[in-house]
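[recover] target loaded
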């Protein structure tokens, strides 16, 4: 009867539906977890994620980023990644080290072009593929854009 041992009834915090969860600690610890943890049923979890996704998408649209395309799961992941990447890019933009006004202007233009690139990416997968992008990676890309502007 091992199934009976590790299956516990818990109640969803949001809709109060009873459902079963599998727990794999000691029986005592399982009882404690079943009682104390905040449980959410699959339906409420999905709703929560789609609400979060909607919220993030709206916030990003407000700063000029388009709605993303892809499966619900991918989009909900991608908007989170995009929020993190935007934070990194903003951080980079706000930590200037300019020698003169020309450099400042060039940096401004490069970032503008860089953000325009991002604004064109509507595929959730594109963002998921870049989830490991670091501040250094972003800096490198902005640098490349700066160089291409300088050449003109
Ligand atoms: Zn629920």
């Amino acid at each position: 009867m091992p199934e009976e041992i590790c299956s516990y009834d818990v109640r969803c915090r949001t809709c109060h539906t009873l459902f079963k969860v599998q727990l794999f600690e000691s029986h005592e610890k399982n009882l404690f977890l079943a009682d104390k943890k905040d449980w959410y049923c699959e339906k409420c979890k999905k709703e929560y994620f789609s609400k979060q996704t909607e919220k993030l998408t709206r916030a990003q649209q407000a700063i000029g980023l388009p709605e993303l395309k892809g499966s619900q799961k991918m989009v909900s992941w991608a908007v989170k990644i995009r929020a993190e990447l935007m934070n990194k890019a903003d951080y980079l933009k706000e930590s200037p080290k300019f020698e003169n006004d020309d450099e400042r202007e060039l940096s401004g233009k490069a970032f503008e072009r860089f953000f325009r690139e991002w604004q064109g990416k509507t595929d959730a997968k594109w963002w998921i593929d870049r989830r490991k992008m670091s501040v250094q990676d972003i800096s490198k890309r902005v640098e490349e854009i700066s160089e291409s502007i300088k050449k003109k």
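[recover] notes: Helices lie at 2-6, 27-36, 42-62, 72-94, 101-119, 124-129, 135-151.
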